[in-house]
Each structure stands twice: as structure tokens, then as C-alpha cells.
Predict the structure of Lactate dehydrogenase.
Amino acid sequence: MNVNAPGGTPGNREGIENAGVVKDVLQRRATVLVLSKSVPAATVAALAQRFEILDPTKPEDIDALVAAHGARIRGIATTGKAKLDRTLLERLPALEIVACYSAGLDNIDAEALAERGIVLTNSSAALAEEVADLAIALMVMARRRLVAADSHVRRGAWAEGAFPLGQSVRGARIGLLGLGHIGSGIARRGEVMGMHPRYCTRRPVAGCSYPYYPDARTLAADSDVFVVACPGGPSNRGLVDRSVIAALGRESTLINIARGEIVDEASLIEALTTGQLGSAGLDVFADEPHVPASLRELHNVVLTPHLGSATIETRDAMGASVVRSLLQALD
């Protein structure tokens, strides 16, 4: 920034004084570390208008930046993919807020942040409706077998015979494993479509009229469509195991728009292959972007490449939520 611009020519006393004020303001701007390179450039540019930005060009640069500036870093912008653990936090004594561009907080030590009173925000509210839309799309596509139907037309098989009947979603019981922003959005859409929501969370949601189930297996046993919409991380890894999948049954559909690690992928593939589970719609996988060939070859599953929030409008809103969180905390 040209520090002479606000106050006229360099020879003007008023201009010099104003330039000094601008310089002082710039020096007092809060310092924000961009911890993940996948934070969009537009978001970083918006932050740079109000903060001093430390934006490493590669992950290994973070250590040097923290060594040089860690004592004055007050905010972090991240996507949740970069690791933020106690070891790194100990080097950031002035940290006040971590603003996450995504909904997932898998690699962020939320407990350590809470112990120090550091604010942690994510963009779950900004992306919830978009992800809920995808969950419904996957559900309809899986139960109506729309991917296979598309192939049926393209390869000319329609002329040889009608496509097999699918399954309706109207009147179906939709079980939500998780009832946060995204799960609630899916439930609302399900109701409009004539479905009957029920849910499982760690404890009943106050004021919620949907039937509550204390664990994933009992929810699955009373669901025609089972939607995984809970957080990932170690505590939920493998939560949807072989017994949960078996409880769903041959006519049911499993949808996962949360995290791949939550579902026992091997058991899911086995159930889909043997017909123990009717169908599935998956936007997330255990080892992204590597999807097992045995899963890719199945015709009763719809696969998308983790694009729950991947629209221009929603990604812009997610970036805006990061900027807004940091401004509210630091500006």
C-alpha cells in the first residue's frame, strides 16, 4: 500500500501526518496465518485487506513462519485438512480464533482449543443446504437406479426391453445419523417429499419432534433410507459397522455425505455385492481419492467425488464465513 496516498503529497505536513497514521494502523493489524493452501485465493485476498497475512507457499514453510511470527499470530484460516495439534498450538501464545473453511474439523484439536478459550468456527451453516441437496439427489438416484438407467439408454438396451422398476422415496422412513445443520436440512427435504424422518445423536435434540434412537443399529433397523450426516474423526470411525449395515436389509439404501471413515467400507461393499443391502449413494470414501475397484464396478451404487459443497455460490459463502469470523473476533 502507498502510505502517501491518503494525505496528499509527501511534502505536505498533513499528508505526512496522515501517512504516519496509516503506517501505524498497518503495523497494528492482527496477524493471521493461512494454515492450509486449499483456502481459496479470493478468501486470502479478502483477509489481506484487513489483516497481516502469513501465507506459506508450501506446508514446510509453516514451521519457519511460526518460528518467526508465532508470538503475534492471533488468527488462523484453514480448511481443516492441515494438522493443528497441541504441539503447534503451544507455539501460538496469542492465538484467539481458528476459522475453518470446511465443515470438517477432523485434523483440528478442538479440545486443546477449548482449554485455552480459543474460538473455533466452521462453515457448516454456509454449506448445509447444498450438501443436503446432494444427499437427496444421491438418494433418489440410488433408489430409482438412475445411473444404470442412463447407461441403459446410452447403450441402446431400451429398444430390447424396459428398464427394471426402482424404489420410491415417498412414504419411506429416512434415518439421520446426525441432526446438525446438514442432517436437519435433509430431514426437512425428506418431509416435503412425503418421507418420515427419525434420527440418532449422542443425546436427544431439545424440541425435536422426530423419533429418537439411541444408537446407529436401532436407527438402521427402522429406516428405509439411512443417511450418514455426523462428524468424522476418531470417535466416529467405523461407527456404521457390519451390524448396522446388516440391520438395514435388502430393500434399504445407505447415503454417506459425511466422512468415508465413518462407514466400514469393506462391509458395505460386501453387502452391496451380495444383495444384503439394496443400494447406496456415496460422496465420501475411506481413502479419497482412491475408490476400490470392487465398489466402482457395482451397479447398485451412485458415486460422486466428494462434491457436497462444490458449487460456486456455496464456496463463495464458505469463504465469506471465514472472513466474517476473523473480522468479528479480531478487527
Remarks:
- The mean pLDDT is 91.
- The radius of gyration is 24 Å.
